[in-house]
Amino acid sequence: MAAPIDPTTSLPLPQDSIQRILHVTSAVHIYAIPPLTTTTKGYSASSWTHPTAPTAQHIFTARLRIMETAIPNSASPTGENVKTDILLEDPKTGELFAAAPYTTPATVEQANDSSRFFAVRVVGEGGRKATLGLGFEERSDALDFGIALQEARKVLGMEGGAAGRGIGAGAAGKGGKDAVMRVKAEEAEKKDWSLKEGETITVNIGEKGRRNGRAESSKKDSEALFSLKPPTPGGGSAMPFLPPPPSASAVKAERSRSRSRGATPEKDKTPAQDMGFDDGEFGEFQ
Fold first, then answer.
1. Residue 284 contacts by C-beta under 8 Å, 6 or more apart in sequence?
2. How many angstroms separate the CA atoms of 206 and 32, rounded?
3. Strands 108-110 and 18-32: what pairing?
4. Are 102 and 152 in contact (CB under 8 A)?
């Protein structure tokens, strides 16, 4: 099995080195852009591609790859050195055109006016540096490119919440040093909380008596709220029961008896004429 090759130097790497591709875009546009001036705040992609007076020159269309390389190193706290490179290659032959070692987030800057254009700082032979314009044809490819760089920053320790997995040969900057210091601090703070042989854990559950006391006090308070206690099961009632109401037949019989006692005898009746009623042609109320 052939040894891995360093993509930036074309030199062989140790046999047990591991390389993985974080992102691939088959076609990206490369521009030679002017350097920033003191009055310019960031890069403007509209000036690169203006149809009438472009300020950038389109060089060619390249294939873009982001490659992560892990090189074993026993002296590293994590046992390996990790570096990430942005590679611009010929889409037909695969020959390297330019490489950008991703050692700091400033290596790639997004344009102010477009999410598809970036400014990338590449390093050539002899350490010569240049800033090239990078343009994606699809917005989704540009989004995937940004996500891959975010993952690389976490691995390299460029973000505050990540400790990183080591420092690459070209990534010995401030971010990598901070990553090593964080790894050492985390290892020093690690403690073994497991129980040793013969050790036990005692759990003291207190306030058992207090709970019972509070329960009894609450019971007494609730009883004091009621002046009448509920009837004792199976015993007599504190209040007498009322008799049931009379039936309908009894009520009718009582009414009949009342009428019979209050009726006036026939002999005591006074004639209607004597009472002032006129017994005329139709008689009395006929």
1. 272, 277
2. 76
3. unpaired
4. yes
- Rounded-to-integer distance, Cα 5 and Cα 267, Å: 147
Residues in the chain: 286
DSSP at 126: G
Give the separation between CA 170 and CA 106, rounded to whole angstroms.
Answer: 15
Contact 156, 84 (CB under 8 A): yes
Q: How far apart are CA 66 and CA 51, in angstroms?
A: 31
Separation of alpha carbons 149 and 158, rounded Å: 11
Residues 6+ apart with CB under 8 A from 29: 58, 61, 133, 134, 135, 136, 137
Q: Which two tokens stand for residue 53?
A: 């007076």
pLDDT tens per residue, range 177-187: 455 455 555 55
Instruction: Please report the sign of the dihedral spanned by the C-alpha atoms of residue 126, residue 131, residue 137, residue 141.
Output: positive
* 126 or 135: which leads in pLDDT: 135
Q: What is the pLDDT of residues 141-162, one digit of tens each?
A: 999 999 999 999 999 988 754 4
Cα–Cα dist 66/107, whole Å: 13
